[in-house]
Amino acid sequence: MSGLICERCGTRVEAGAAAAYRCPCGGLYDIEPDLDPRDASRLRQRFNERRCSAQAPESSGVWRYRELVLPETRSDEIVTQDEGHTRLLAAPRLAEYVGIEQLYVKHEGDNPTGSFKDRGMTVAVTAARRAGARQLACASTGNTAASLAAYAALAGIPAVLFVPAEGVALGKLAQALAYGARVLKLRGDFDAAMRLVEQAAAALGLSLVNSINPYRIEGQKTILWETLDQLGRTPDWFIAPAGNLGNTAAFGKAIREWRALGLLDRAPRLAAVQAAGAAPFAAAFERGFDRLEPVSAQTVATAIKIGNPVSYARAVRALRETEGVALAVTDAEILAAKAAVDQAGIGAEPASCAALAGARALRRRGLIEPQATIVCLLTGNLLKDPETNLAYAEGRLEGAPAPRASPVLEPTLEAVRGCLERAT
């Protein structure tokens, strides 16, 4: 790594010199890698050799790409739980749902804590421990909290989690508490928690590991690289849910770096899909990215319930460089897509399914051709949000189908027969 560069003013500093991860001008720092196309064949060989490794950290789907993630780190310094190498599934039933011929889902719910956050967290916590961090912190709607709690426990570093007092899915909160982190419930939404954790990091010496931290982006960009390796070709579209926009920024960076090395001949078009009640990025896209206007976020998809995304500028660059798009879908569309994902036997939390809802919307608009190959990113495990799963099945959410009853029966064959006959 050659250092950090401010996304806004271009100021360069040494890696590790920006504990707050913001330039004095207010812009975020990005890690600026030292890329040489002459290294491409050597790197490709190393990546391929590690693909089937059974030895940590090379067995990790993140650290397999370590030369382009955190190259100066020794193996014994890496905090890893063998994250990554998640499933890429051909999904013909979901392709039919969207109205195209080939659709794949990349399921990041396979990660150790059940979401894509583990990819960024392994790098951020590794970098923090190397820098001597004494306490780690994040703001979260749930998944980041669960991931940080797990990786902090693995590293032996205390963690403090700033979460909204209302609206955090029970599955995620339970994870964070089980791993032993200190959870602070705040009156306010994620954006209020994010503001406070930045202040606390600066004033109290906490090491912040939200996606404002550039090392998080370094881990998350491996999602796209791994997908390309698994697919064996470049898809026409790579579609992902969008909240704080860390993934959108990471995917743009992943494409930029592989193209600079000559490892990628063309870029997939990126699509960032937001919930209609939390869609400041999509709104800015429709205005030509003239400005970001924060909103008071409201959506059933709690993982993307963010009204003032911190990675806005980096995500704008990613879409511009890939001829990408941003769009908003309604909660009803997200839940309908979730039903399709779940009933295909794949399963995902609601926010994940914004990607599929977005793919369907883009197909209906004519932006995706029927012969296109697309990959939809599923960001979290089905069991992350059990309350929403039950509310949808029981018909308690807007747009939900007729309730699916779960009757309590006498333990007799006659009771079962009668129940099944009534259902038909």
Give an overview of the whole structure:
The chain has 424 residues and is α/β, with parallel strands linked by helices. Among the domains are: 1-32, no CATH class; 87-112 and 216-379, 3-Layer(aba) Sandwich (Rossmann fold). It contains 15 helices and 13 strands. The strands form 3 sheets. Strands 4-5-13-10-11-12 form a 6-stranded mixed beta sheet, with helices on both faces. The protein has a 4-stranded parallel beta sheet with strand order 8-7-6-9. Helix 9 links the parallel strand 10 (237-241) and strand 11. Helix 4 (143-155) packs parallel to helix 5. It is globular, with a radius of gyration of 21 Å. The N and C termini lie far apart (63 Å).
Q: Could you state the order of secondary-structure elements as H and E?
A: EEEHEHEHEHEHEHEHHEHEHHEHHEHH
Q: What is the radius of gyration? A: 21 Å
| Arrangement of strands in the largest sheet | 4-5-13-10-11-12
Mean pLDDT: 94
Which structural class do you get from the secondary structure elements? alpha/beta
CATH topology-level fold name of the domain at 87-112 and 216-379: Rossmann fold
Main β-sheet: number of strands, strand sense, barrel status? 6 strands, mixed
Low-confidence stretches: none
CATH class of the domain at 87-112 and 216-379: Alpha Beta
* Helix count from the secondary structure assignment: 15
| N/C terminus separation | 63 Å
- Strand content bin: 5-15%
**Shape label:** globular
| Helical coverage, percent range | 25-40%
CATH level-two architecture of the domain at 87-112 and 216-379: 3-Layer(aba) Sandwich
Record field, number of beta strands? 13
